[in-house]
Amino acid sequence: DRIAAEAGVGKGTIFRRFGDRAGLTAALLDDNMSAFQEAFLRGPPPLGPGAPAGERLAAFVDALLALMDEDLEIVLAAEHAARTTDGAVAGALALHVRSLIAALDAELEADVVATLLMGALSAPVIVRMRARGGDLLAQQTAARALVRGLTHPV
């Protein structure tokens, strides 16, 4: 309703254009996610290629949390929609994290570690942290500690 009102059109117009709530959510998230994906695939280091895998993973975590902080409602809706669709966005992010983890340590089960790390960065987890008063900086600091555990094991 809010999007239709801001666009100055009826709710039916929005849904004719996007099909359903999942289509609308995907379209809203697409621009920001496309820019983010371009940054980690082709942008400058440390997020983009050219930096060591550990630095790239830390930069990725920081940037993903910042993106989620900016658009948390949309990301939350997109994650919900992804559970009933192919989840292409989540798949692309997880693939990138898996490749960085594999580059860090070939002996790690990259798929398992990436799944656990991405689970810790999921929108529902961020919503709970926000409800407890955790801001973006606190979330980034905690996530970097997880990454340090991968890059500097004891």
Strands, helices and their partners?
Layout: H1 2-7, H2 11-18, H3 21-42, H4 53-70, H5 72-82, H6 88-104, H7 110-120, H8 123-131, H9 136-151
Helix pairs in contact: 2-3, 3-4, 3-5, 4-5, 4-6, 4-9, 5-8, 6-7
Give average pLDDT, whole number: 85
Strand fraction equals under 5%
State the helix count: 9
From the 3D coordinates, which CATH architecture would you assign? Orthogonal Bundle
Unreliable residue runs:
none
What does the overall shape look like? elongated
The domain tally reads 1
User: What's the SSE pattern?
Assistant: HHHHHHHHH
What would CATH call the homologous superfamily? Tetracycline Repressor, domain 2
Descriptive key words:
154 residues, Tetracycline Repressor, domain 2, elongated
Walk me through this protein's architecture.
The protein has helices at 2-7, 11-18, 21-42, 53-70, 72-82, 88-104, 110-120, 123-131, 136-151. The chain is built from 9 helices and no strands. Helix 3 (21-42) crosses helix 5. The model has no long low-confidence stretch (mean pLDDT 85).
In brief:
The protein is mostly helical and about 150 residues long. It contains 9 helices and no strands.
